[in-house]
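Expect chain and fold; thus:
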Amino acid sequence: MTTVDVLAIAPHPDDAELICGGTLAKLARTGHRTGILDLTRGEMGTKGSVELRADEAGNAAMVLGVALRENLELPDAAFENRPATRRALAIVLRRLRPQIVIAPAPKGRHPDHRIAAQLVRDACFLAGIRKIDSETEPHRPRKLLYAIAYREDYVKPTFVVDISEDFETKLRAIACYTSQFDGVTQAGEVFPTGEPLADVIRHQSAHYGSLIRCAYGEPFYTQETMRVDDVMGLGVESF
C-alpha cells in the first residue's frame, strides 16, 4: 500500500503549487513522503484542456518530488460538502493515511477554495469513524493545516515555513502550467499588481519570509494553539 506523511488537498491542479509548493518541495527534499490530491480536473478553466492540465500537473509533481498525485474527479465549480463527497474523500484519506493534511484557506474569493477547506476538515474527522466504510481501516490525520498564502488579509499566520532553499523549485513547478499561467498577472487567490505572476509570488513569499527573518516563506494557519515546550528555543527575534 502506498501511503504518505503529508497530503496537500486542493480544488484544482495548480492550486497546491501556488499555496504550498515550497513546503511540499522542502518536505520531499528532507526525506518525507508527500502527496497531492486534486479534487477536480479543472474542467471549467478558460484555458487549456483537462488532458493538458493533467500532463502539466504530472510534470509539476515531478518537480516538487511528491511521491504521488491523484485526482478525486469531483465536478469543477460544482462540488459540495455533502455526505457522498465527504465519504469519497474520507476513503482516500484512509488509504493514503497521511499524518498531516494541508487544506486551502477557509476564506477566499473562489467558492471551490472555501468549500474545499470545509470538506477537507469534515472528511478528516469522518475518516476516523469505523462504520463510514466497511472495506477500509479507520485513519484520522494528526494535524490539519490551512495554507493561507495570498489570504493573510483576514487572519495572522499561526506559523511560516522557511522555503528559501526551495522557492525556485516552487516557481519551476508553477511554470509547468504553461496553459494557465503564461503571460498572466494573477491566478487563484493571487491578486494582480500589474507585474508578471512569478514576480507577484516572489514578492508575496518574500513578505512571508520577512515575518520569520528569512528570504522566502509560506504561511499556515491552525485552529489549535501551537504548543511550545522550551521558550529558550523560540525563533524570530523581537528586536
About this structure: The chain has a mean pLDDT of 95. The first helix runs from residue 15 to 29.
